[in-house]
Amino acid sequence: MFLKDGGRIYHTYSTYERGLDMLNVAYHYMDLVPKGRDEGDDGATAWVRRRDEYRD
């Protein structure tokens, strides 16, 4: 999160990994079901691949 005050810009907040869970309503529902988020041992975003990480 950034704040611009006149000509100055302040970095006011950062979050990583699970810091935004409270803002994603879907997670609240997934926490209620038997398997929950079903993240496994690799973590919540193990399936995510960036363009430069794909094998040719």
For the largest sheet, list the strands in their spatial order.
1-2
In quaternary terms, these chains amount to: single chain
Mean pLDDT: 75
Q: What level of helicity do the residues show?
A: 10-25%
Strand % is: 5-15%
Number of helices: 1
Inertia-based shape: flat
Q: Give the topology string: H per helix, E per strand.
A: EEH
Low-pLDDT stretches are: none
How would you explain this protein's 3D organization?
The chain has one helix at 25-30, and strands spanning 2-5, 8-11. Strands 1-2 form a two-stranded antiparallel ribbon. The protein has a domain at 2-39. The protein has one helix and two strands, in the order ββα. With 56 residues, it is of the alpha+beta class.
Characterize this entry briefly.
With 56 residues, this protein is α+β, with helices and mostly antiparallel strands. It is built from 1 helix and 2 strands, in the order ββα. A two-stranded antiparallel sheet has the order 1-2.
Strand and helix map with partners:
Blueprint: E1 2-5, E2 8-11, H1 25-30
Antiparallel strand pairs: 1-2
Core attributes:
56 residues, 1 helix
